[in-house]
UniProtKB/TrEMBL annotation:
GO terms for cellular component: membrane. It is found in: Membrane. It comes from the Eukaryota. It comes from Physcomitrium patens (Spreading-leaved earth moss). The chain crosses the membrane at residues 20-39, 51-70, 189-208. This is Major facilitator superfamily (MFS) profile domain-containing protein.
Length: 223
């Protein structure tokens, strides 16, 4: 949940970074919707919940195998190169160029990959020499870092505090308590809830880099 968006953000070009991170969220919503669909399909089966978990296990296995082909993050490699010795640094920079080329696809030339590597190296090198990379844990709670921590932590807290994850987890029982007494009716409506969430997420994916993250965040949180 946390490593995936960090990896995407560190490996994608800035102009599509928001779209790709949002796309990861959209795929989570697709998984939620599939869970609702299988839950509805198997609602009258004894032990039908096993199919729901078993189906997600297959997807997890495919994802686990696919991750073996992911290249290491070039930024992470270059950060190690900055902090390592010269010989090790040269090898890591070469690996970072290969990773850049693999991430950008067939249209990316070796020269372009090496240019990106040099630019990232230059930024990290300057940050290290300026002392920006050598911070202590206590500095997380000081100055601008504290403000960022409060904002980031606050967003996560209020996302949970509003109760929206609980509505997704317990959609069928909530709908049953609301008057749809038949379990099949409640689970069928939960599928509609999943479709609605998917549509809203797709809108976010399409417009996050055009409208910006802040307006979408404010609008979504207000709603």
């Amino acid at each position: 949940m946390h490593a995936a968006p960090m990896y995407i953000a560190e490996t994608s070009p800035s102009e599509i970074r928001g779209t790709l991170v949002s796309l990861k969220e959209a795929l989570i919503v697709v998984g939620t919707l599939l869970g609702y669909l299988i839950g509805w399909w198997e609602i009258d089966s004894v032990g039908g919940w096993r199919f729901m978990f078993g189906f997600s296990a297959l997807i997890a296995a495919v994802m686990g195998l696919g991750m073996w082909w992911l290249p290491p993050c070039p930024r992470w490699l270059l950060l190690r190169a900055v902090k390592g010795n010269e010989e090790e640094g040269w090898d890591l920079k070469k690996q970072a160029s290969i990773a850049h080329k693999k991430l950008r696809g067939n249209h990316c030339s070796t020269e372009t990959a090496e240019f990106e590597t040099r630019e990232t190296w230059r930024v990290l090198k300057a940050a290290c020499e300026g002392g920006d990379m050598n911070v202590s844990f206590i500095e997380l709670f000081q100055g601008v870092n504290l403000k960022a921590l409060i904002v980031g932590g606050g967003l996560v807290f209020f996302q949970q505090y509003t109760g929206q994850p609980s509505v997704l987890y317990y959609a069928a029982p909530i709908l049953q308590n609301a008057g749809f007494s038949a379990a099949s009716d409640a689970t069928q409506l939960s599928v509609l809830l999943g479709f609605y969430k998917l549509i809203m997420t797709i809108i976010a994916v399409l417009y996050v880099d055009k409208l910006g993250r802040r307006p979408l965040l404010i609008g979504g949180a207000t709603g």
